[in-house]
Amino acid sequence: MRAARMHGRKDLRVEDLPPLGSPPPGCVRLRVEACGICGTDLEVYLHAQPSEEPPLAGSGGPLTMGHESAGVVVETGADVDLAVGQRVAVEGHLFCGECFWCRRGDYALCARLRSTGQGADGGLAEEMLAPARICLPYSDDLLPEQAAVSEPTSVAVRAVRRARLEPGATVAVVGGGTIGLLVAQVARLRGAERVVVVEPVAERRALAERLAADVTATPHDATDVLADLTGGVGADVVFEAGGNPEAVRSAVEWTRKGGRTVLLGVSGGSLELPLTSFLLSEKELVASLSHTYDVDFPEAISLLESGKVDVRPLITDRIGLDQVVSHGFEALLAEPPAHLKVIVMPGGAAPGR
Ligand SMILES: [Zn+2]
Ligand SMILES: [Zn+2]
Hints:
The protein has 353 residues and is of the alpha/beta class.
């Protein structure tokens, strides 16, 4: 069984491993058909030490990466409803189901949370094991590569839910990468009347206009564009998907008084917030973390199945497992504007599908 294993900073190796064996009760073994690579994976690739740092600490050694997986059930453990041969998308959170947060349904806040690819072996492999409850069937209308993008789509679904959009809202999305372009599409579907995408790269602005944006702006002209569009009021909701503190500061600034700024990037760094003006403007700063398997993820899958959210234009690269470093991680680092969603197909791409 071949898998892409993290051994340390920028040390990802495609290796032969022993077969996974039969899944434990409640779990399934999947043949992985597609697995996306995202910004979070890049952060882990650049910074993590599998045996030392928290995101990977659960493994105590090399770890198979990948948390945006879709596969076919090849074997089921006891007490599993899924059938062999069923295609599923994997939500990815391994939560305890018993702690304070799990009992509230806030699974991403689980006190003992791990995820596939972070703390537990993930989907950049020919096969993976996963709890059946986080493996959601999808219809034949979707290709496995689209199903793999359910995970980032559910990030957008949750962020839009957390934004409590009102019909007719003006929404700005900072960052026109995969997450930003998904948030723009979902916000439009959930009642936003005007969607502005703020993004420095011209090709991504053009794609944003094709998919969901009424207007696009560069970070330099966004202040003027938003002022013109809203009569100086500002956006009702600003989603920050870019991930650096400077962008977060701008996002709060572009939010109207009484409006909401939603953070969904993983950036590190910290934010200096002028508290007096923040108080006087009664803005809300809301964080949105990943997704839940029972609410956000099924909604994401149905948005993809219905074609209301289109992820096909976001998939820029389809590569094999052996190319995961050269054409995946290193390509994303070398030339970020040239790639949006990179999909790894461990079994090879099926031509014409
Ligand atoms: Zn991701
Ligand atoms: Zn828990």
